[in-house]
Amino acid sequence: IPQLSSHTLAALQEFYLEQQQREGMKTSQGFNQYSIGSIEEDWQLSQFWYSDETASCLANEAVVAAGKGGRIACVSAPSVYQKLKEQDGKDFSVCILEYDRRFSVYGEEFIFYDYNHPLNLPENLLPRSFDIVIADPPYLSEECLQKTAQTIKYLTKGKILLCTGAIMEEQAAKHLGVKICKFIPKHSRNLANEFRCYVNYASGLD
Fold it and tell me: Which of 2-16, 28-42, 124-138 shows the lowest per-residue confidence on average (mean pLDDT)?
């Protein structure tokens, strides 16, 4: 019978203990359902949450870009959605397009989204109805970016904020006409691939 080494077993036990502690925090009083990490990353779905600072920066940029009463769509970018919801009372509306149905806890603002079917969207999601679309395609492949780009172009009135790997710069320009920003986004866990932001408007990220 295969057995785990003592080191691996200890690491696994530590992971489960951390998970239990996080679950305990969630059930304790004052838990914020919109805080980053309230829904665990699922690496099998290629989920990597932004750091708190990065999510705040991107959320603030989206609010400014959308303008007063603006509409913001977060495509596969739940960390930004959560930060936007923490700004409760601000004059904007936001929705989250996401494959992971755990985010359906956010009610009517959640829209199930599979990038493999980029235009399979609810009828009430009208074309060009969002002032800005923030997107973070789950995979660093041209196929994923190209399909996500179809969704972005359908939803946006014009402004696009794309977050993806630095290696996707050429494809991002090709499919969405976006340019790389000086701002370097960070994740709560370090990624092996260099990550960047891209926009097609004069942003505060340069």
Answer: 28-42
CATH number at residue 93: 3.40.50.150
Residue 90 pLDDT level (bands cut at 50, 70, 90): confident
Higher pLDDT, 156 or 100: 156
Nearest-angstrom CA–CA distance, 106 and 116: 23
Across 79-87, average pLDDT: 91
Q: How far apart are CA 116 and CA 95, in angstroms?
A: 20
Helix (H, G, I), strand (E, B) or coil at 32: coil
DSSP E strand boundaries for the chain: 70-75, 92-98, 110-112, 130-135, 156-165, 179-180, 195-199
Could you tell me if residue 8 is inside a domain? no
Cα(161)–Cα(167) distance, integer angstroms: 17
Domain membership flag for residue 184: yes
How much is the mean pLDDT over the chain?
Answer: 85
Spatial CA neighbour of 132 closest among 182, 174, 69, 181: 69
Residue 17 in domain: no
**Would you state the structure tokens that stand for residue 100, as one six-digit string?**
């992971």
Note the pTM of the prediction, 2 decimals: 0.79
Owner of token pair 């060009």: 128
